[in-house]
Amino acid sequence: MTDGILLHVESGLARVTFDRPASLNAMDFPMARRWRSVAHEVTADPSVGAVILDANGPAFCAGGDVVAMATTGASGREVTETAGAIHDGIRTFAEAPLPMVAAVQGAVAGGGLGLMLTADYVVASENARFVSRYANIGLTPDLGVSTLLPAAVGQRRALQLLLQDRMLSAAEALEWGLVAEVVASGDLSSRVDEIARFWLEGATAAFGQATRLVRVGAGRTLAANLDDEATTIGAAFDTPEAQARVSAFAAASAKGRP
């Protein structure tokens, strides 16, 4: 049983795949717990240097499984606990020194926006569509949407999505800054693989720490961020990889001098 999420780790790359295509990859209760466990498994694996987040089927993620909520007799307490499990996974991924790229196709709705924005870099296919729909069913934002969405597009634009029944096309999402790239549907998988391989073939640890500094820094004081930056760059400088790269850069610069 995969409980709706597949995990494959090979050659430093972890691929996390939503796998409930018949339900547009909406998260039900077992899938929520699986997301949390996968996040902890991936971020605790020292062999992993980069993460791809993708989905099987026509849609990336329709958010929480409202049908399951309505038909299983779930209480508000159970919904809160389930949201908490998903939030634990989001926070675990977002605060880890691991760069993540998301491959997004089709519908991204409700909490799917927050799951998508768990990634540091989002590539969308030209058929992707983005919508909130929380208020349509009398619910409020979850899965990081109230924080991650305004961080990506600004508060005013985030409220446009949350307070109106507005759907963004892939082109509009790119213009808003919700996604980093838009590609042809047939090129989505190869482009995301290319990005992840670029991280793995480069200064992998430095890319990972850059994502961590930006993510964690958003909730701290400037002084705390500056202290973390100083400690992190010092630790990086002492690694064999950085020593080799810094020396190569210095030597190349010296050759270019008059």
Helical residue percent? 40-55%
CATH superfamily heading of the largest domain: 2-enoyl-CoA Hydratase, Chain A, domain 1
Count all strands and give the number. Answer: 9
* Topology as a string of helices (H) and strands (E): EEHEHHEEHEEHHEHEHHHH
Question: Per DSSP, what share of the residues sits in E-state strands of 2 or more residues?
Answer: 15-25%
Write down the Rg. Answer: 19 Å
Main sheet, how many strands, which sense, barrel?
6 strands, mixed
Q: Could you walk me through the main structural features you see in this protein, from its secondary elements to its overall organization?
A:
It is built from eleven helices and nine strands. The strands form two sheets. Strands 1-2-3-4-6-9 form a six-stranded mixed sheet, with helices on both faces. Strands 5-7-8 form a three-stranded mixed sheet. The chain is globular. Helix 1 runs parallel beside helix 3, helix 5 (145-153) packs across helix 6 (155-163) and helix 9 packs antiparallel against helix 10. The chain has two domains: 5-201, 2-enoyl-CoA Hydratase, Chain A, domain 1, CATH 3.90.226; 204-255. By secondary structure, it is α/β, with parallel strands linked by helices. The mean pLDDT is 94. Belongs to the enoyl-CoA hydratase/isomerase family. It is an enzyme of class 5 (isomerase). It holds the Pfam family ECH_1. This is 2-(1,2-epoxy-1,2-dihydrophenyl)acetyl-CoA isomerase. One of its GO terms (biological process) is isoprenoid catabolic process.
